[in-house]
Design brief:
6-stranded antiparallel sheet; 15% helix; single chain; alpha+beta; 5-stranded mixed sheet
């Protein structure tokens, strides 16, 4: 379903949606009338493939059946029908569909490939090998096919052949960690232990680098030939193919004057880089380098406003223009409080305090300035208070969440140091001392810290003029492209440890000019680069992955010169990124007046054709050009342009005609990620169109455009799928969205903690109990460089009213429902028979670190409420903790860090109790902090304060008597706190102090003496099966957290999966018998169904009752980007480790028993965390 709300940004455009769960429209019936049979085939195929993306296999089957029943000669229809049957586990029908496809096309690779998967699943290994080898002969460059053949030959014990196939995978994908792992296994089994050891070391080295292709069990995870054919080739279409969309006529009209833009840049319009004094440098040369311009909705009224940076002799004031919505802009500079004078090169916008309003940073010829948007149309200078001033000659800036902690940091590109002392002369900037760049880390408490040195942003010889921030290596972090005045652009890869590494790049010495642009120009999902060329013109550097690039000159650009600034945007709404080139002539040093020019090249299936004159941009000349920005300022559905000039008026170029094609806009709004959504990736699929975009705070030389996705659709009337990947890893989709609308998509709060869910058989179904193993997380960041040490075991008390025996057995399921990997080592049932006059509880709680308490059974009788309970403000909250009713005392403080509150307390007056035996029973749950929030909080100088207990001494002072009280392990459950013998005076008041977000639902006091008249039995598991179940539906009786789950009702969240080897499905009982580091390794959607035979237990004596505790030992790992190795499930943890990540000399056990376990049991391989939305054109 969807929930919707309006946001001011889109009030002028139409419908606003906030995605909650993806949905599709009605059944397979068409919503369009088809003029040609080919249109119906394309529509049904698009709809069917979109349904497959949503795991709605039966509905997809209906679409594909409709195709082949009406048009049986459409071979891709049979292929896609077979694929849908396969994922619906209707293997016989899948085989029949593939046989129909092979009748028509005997070498069809998808059919052979998925038949190979079917035979593999049915243990018909020889048949599977034959099927995959047919695919391999046709396509020896498909790594997934080679990978499966390697696995199959491993099962045939032909380790030499298996090793050859894994080597082939590595030759195709050098960073495929799983291929290295399996090659190591094959070599070891084949007897070459030393080579196997080296490969295993390579596997471990690669674990924190990249993923590669897809090999899993779900749709989109088993390789490109197991993905439905996205686009039906024309030769298969019945009748006449759909006519190509007619070219639209577009003209750009300059409307600056009629729009009320009275701004004039104060530079001279003449650039002479030679100067004979510091005064001449500052009054003549510096202003001639500027300035930039940006579209921004600063007042959140839904219309794109404009800000012009300014520079001039003696300083200048920039200009803020508010868009009235009627085609006219009105200046608001003075009223907004932006009246400071300076030599501003670029203005960049970003919401550093996550309040929803964009803030403004000015990169100046020192000092720089940060203005905080106060949300009422005015700004406050907070530079000094936040510590982000910079007194160098700054040319560029960008807001970016480089450390993935949910707030925007600030990077500043510096051209040179400002001269100090004696006057200087020469040529700028060469005669000036190079200045290091700045990286101001946002501490989350309205302060920043410059970490540029630690981050290694200082690049020798670099004259920085701008920055582009994006995920260039597709590794789910933000990398930097530092732009150099002469074109020596540096690519810095984010190492996720707060630092960057400079990459060797092939354009060194071959690129020129200050500008650059990036975008996916060929639909392969990777960001390509566009640079000026050293010998003139523009070169596109196609990204091949793994830091490999292929250059291609853009014909017709050779004569444009070297000082070029490219910009990529879809001016005609056909779905392709077109190329705008601005000549800025910064390389001149003669002092002659510049004559700026603009060129537009239309993208025609990857070839760029000059359309400058056709669209009227040949009239843009005569003024020296600088910054450029693009947005739909008039709200008509096509992208307009604004061009800043040096020493003159700007160009405001309205796009007339681009909206003849269809379009859709998407504005991301972060919830846990940064508010403006910088770093969000968006994929769109509409018919045969597939496009990928990324929001970037830094976009190049004097350039910034809004963080809004604009997708041209050609003549397609809807977007079949829009999928967002948020910086914190959340995947989110919109389905079947009509064209000509702007969507605001707010980020879903899907990030969970590393806890599986337990269900128990109640006689009709499995019933939700709680989560568990909250302490078993490995790799969770506590503070920078410090990771938790897991508490791996837990006793979970089952609700006795929910337990119903099935054939004399207690049956539970342990479900992995979140974006995590769960490793189960041991499971056991503990049965406690006892008199019904008292209750029993395991003495369970989470402690902040070792040592962890051994198991103890608490007997609780004479249960009653405290006499009084007061919160941190002195309010009586006894009613809130009197019953399990989802009402809780207030947790104070709206801190921007998940799991953190202000320090607060709860004071309990226990009344008349025996001080020698007092146990608190606290029914509560916790909103866990995660790695990202811990990182962000530590930057703000905060640390979590786990609960501690105080009592009053004889003088009435509070004294701590229990420093490690512990806290509840996740979802609601009862934790115990033994206060026996801890009171220091007659007072029976107890104070619990913490800053964690803990919600106390019920507090009871047990005062009776301990009992030992119970019987305790430990029952081993009698059966255990690992299988796929899916994701039980969350529900809340009151619409608030926490959720419970309905086992039999499933939803399909878009979780990713850790790369690595998982335990194969089936019987896993041998792995759960003892704690031995031989785990059942599960991914999201998996469950382990366990039974315990209690038929031989003695009968209960009269007046007794029976309770069941489930003991589980295991580990869990989440995909928080700041956890250790968030994309990989390995290295596997061990109970013998002293730290994780492992210290030198420690590792997972490497002995024959554990090697045999890894090889025999963990054969389910996932090679990519994020499955592709659709195959690239080359793969189809």
């Amino acid at each position: 379903m969807y929930s919707g709300r309006f946001h001011s940004f889109f009030l002028m455009f139409g419908v606003v949606l906030v995605a909650v769960f993806p949905r599709l429209g009605g059944p397979c019936g068409s919503v369009f009338a088809f003029a040609e049979p080919a249109e119906e085939v394309i529509y049904r195929n698009n709809r069917g493939t979109a349904l497959l993306d949503q795991y709605k296999f039966k509905e997809a089957i209906a679409e594909f059946r409709a195709v082949v029943e009406k048009y049986p000669d459409v071979t891709p229809g049979w292929v896609n029908l077979g694929i849908a049957y396969f994922y619906d586990q209707r293997y016989n029908e899948a085989i029949e569909a593939f046989q129909e496809a092979l009748k028509r096309e005997p070498d069809e690779p998808h059919a052979h490939y998925v038949l190979g998967l079917i035979y593999r699943n049915q243990d018909e290994i020889d048949q599977a090998v034959k099927a995959f080898e047919k695919v391999y002969r046709a396509d020896p460059n498909d790594a997934s096919t080679a990978y499966y053949l390697g696995q199959l030959y491993m099962r045939l014990r032909d380790y030499a052949q298996a090793a050859d196939y894994f080597r082939r995978v590595i030759s195709l994908e050098p960073y495929n960690a799983s291929a290295h792992y399996n090659l190591a296994t094959a070599l070891g089994r084949g007897g070459d232990r030393e080579a196997g050891r080296r490969e295993m070391e390579e596997f471990r080295r690669l674990q924190n680098l990249f993923g590669s292709t897809t090999v899993g069990l779900q749709y989109l995870e088993q390789g490109k030939y197991a993905i439905a054919i996205q686009r039906i080739p024309a030769e298969y279409l019945p009748g006449s193919p759909p006519a190509a969309a007619p070219a639209v006529s577009v003209r750009f009209e300059d409307v600056a004057a009629v729009s009320g833009l009275t701004f004039r840049h104060q530079g001279s319009g003449r650039l002479n880089r030679h100067f004979d004094s510091t005064q001449a440098l500052e009054q003549e040369v510096v202003p001639a380098f500027g300035s930039g311009v940006s579209f921004v909705d600063y007042d959140l009224d839904g219309r794109m406003d404009l800000y012009f940076a300014n520079a001039g002799s003696g300083g200048a004031v920039g200009a803020l223009f508010r868009n009235r919505g009627d085609g006219v802009f009105e200046e608001r500079t003075e009223g907004a409080g932006l009246i400071g004078r300076g030599q501003t090169m670029q203005a960049c916008w970003g919401d550093f305090d996550n309040d929803g309003a964009p803030d403004l940073y000015l990169a100046n010829y020192g000092p720089n300035v940060l203005y905080r948007n106060q949300g009422n149309g005015t700004f406050e200078n907070v530079t000094e208070a936040l510590g982000v001033g910079d007194d160098n000659w700054s040319m560029g800036c960008a807001f970016v969440d480089f450390d993935h902690d949910g707030d925007l940091d600030l990077v500043v590109a510096n051209l040179a140091e400002r001269p100090k002392g004696a006057s200087v002369q020469g040529e700028a900037p060469n005669v000036l001392t190079a200045a290091g760049n700045r990286l101001f880390r946002n501490n989350g408490n309205r302060t920043f810290t410059d970490v540029a040195k630690d981050a290694r942003l200082d690049q020798p010889g670099l004259r920085s003029v701008g920055i582009i921030t994006a995920d260039f290596d597709d590794s789910r972090d933000v990398d930097f492209l530092l732009l150099d005045l002469s074109g020596d652009h540096r690519l810095l890869s984010n190492l996720r440890d707060g630092s960057f590494r400079a990459q060797e790049v092939p354009w060194t010495g071959r690129a020129a000019g200050p500008g650059a642009a990036t975008g996916d120009l060929n639909g392969d999902g990777l960001l390509d680069f566009v640079f000026g060329a050293a010998d003139g013109g523009i070169t596109i550097w196609r990204n091949l992955g793994y830091n490999r690039y292929d250059p291609k000159a853009v014909p017709g650009t050779e004569a444009l010169g070297r000082d070029l600034v490219p910009l990529l945007f879809d001016y005609d709404n056909d779905g392709d990124l077109d190329l705008l080139v601005v000549s800025v002539a910064l390389g001149k040093s003669s002092g002659a007046e510049e004559s700026g020019k603009v060129y537009l090249f239309q993208n025609r299936d990857g070839d760029f054709v000059d359309v400058t004159k056709a669209v009227g941009l040949d009239r843009v000349s005569g003024r020296p050009l600088r910054g450029v920005s693009t947005a739909d300022f008039d709200g008509d559905g096509d992208l307009d342009l604004v061009l800043a000039t040096n020493g003159g008026a700007p160009w405001l170029l309205r796009n007339d005609g681009g909206n003849q094609n269809q379009w859709i806009g998407v504005r991301p709004v972060g919830t846990n990620s940064n508010k403006p959504g910088y770093g969000v990736k968006a994929e769109l699929k509409a018919g045969a169109l597939w496009a990928k975009r990324e929001t970037m705070g830094g976009q190049g030389f004097l350039t910034q455009s809004p963080a809004v996705f604009h997708f041209g659709l050609g003549q397609r009337r809807q977007a079949d799928v829009i999928r967002l990947l948020w910086p914190n890893g959340v995947l989110q989709s919109e389905i079947d969205q009509p064209a000509r609308q702007n969507l605001e998509i707010s980020e879903l709060d899907r990030k969970g903690t590393s806890c599986p869910i337990m269900y128990v058989w109640d006689g009709r179904t499995y019933r939700f109990q709680t989560d568990f193993l909250g302490g078993g997380a490995y790799g969770s960041l506590v503070a920078p460089g410090i990771y938790n040490y897991p508490d791996t075991d837990e006793y979970i008390k089952l609700n006795r009213d929910d337990v119903a025996l099935r054939d004399g057995r207690v049956a539970i399921t342990m479900n992995n429902q979140l974006e995590e990997v769960i490793l189960y080592d041991h499971v056991q049932l503990v049965v406690v028979d006892h008199p019904a006059e008292y209750e029993v509880f395991p003495d369970e709680k989470l402690l902040p670190g070792p040592p962890y308490d051994p198991f103890r059974l608490i007997t609780a009788q004479d249960l009653r409420l405290p006499r009084a309970v007061r919160d941190h403000a002195g309010r009586n909250v006894l009613e809130e903790v009197a019953a399990v009713d989802r009402r809780y005392p207030e947790v104070p403080g709206d801190l921007p860090f998940k799991g953190y509150a202000e320090e607060h307390s709860l004071v309990l007056d226990l009344g008349d109790v025996d001080p020698e035996y007092v146990v608190l029973l606290l029914y509560a749950w916790i909103d866990y902090a995660d790695s990202t929030s811990n990182l962000a909080a530590s930057q703000a100088g905060l640390a979590q304060i786990p609960p501690y207990v105080q009592v009053r001494d004889a003088s009435g002072r509070w004294v701590t008597v229990l420093e490690r009280m512990g806290f509840p392990a996740g979802l609601p459950k009862t934790m115990t706190v033994d206060l026996s013998g801890r009171f220091l005076s007659p007072s029976r008041e107890v104070r619990i102090v913490t800053n964690m977000k803990i919600y106390w639902d019920q507090i009871l006091v047990a005062t009776g003496r301990p009992r030992d008249d119970y019987r305790l039995f430990r029952i081993p598991a009698s059966g255990a099966e690992l299988r796929y179940h899916g994701f039980p539906r969350p529900y809340s009786p009151d619409g608030r957290l926490p959720h419970a789950y309905i086992y039999g009702e499933l939803v399909q969240p878009e979780w990713k999966v850790h790369v690595g080897a998982y335990t194969r499905y089936g019987d896993v009982l041998p792995l759960l018998q003892e704690v031995d580091d031989m785990f059942v390794i599960t991914r999201s959607g998996d469950e382990v169904a366990v039974e315990f035979d209690v038929s031989d237990l003695p009968s209960l004596p009269p007046g007794w009752t029976r309770d069941y505790l489930v003991y589980v030992d295991g580990f869990g790992k989440d995909m928080d980007p700041n956890s250790a190795g968030p994309h990989f499930l390995g290295p596997l943890p061990s109970h013998r480790m002293t730290a994780y990540p492992y210290l030198p000399g420690e590792s997972y056990p490497d002995n024959p028993e554990h090697r045999e376990y890894l090889e025999r049991w963990n054969t389910r391989i996932f090679d990519q965390a994020i499955p592709p939305l659709a195959a690239s054109p080359a793969e189809e």
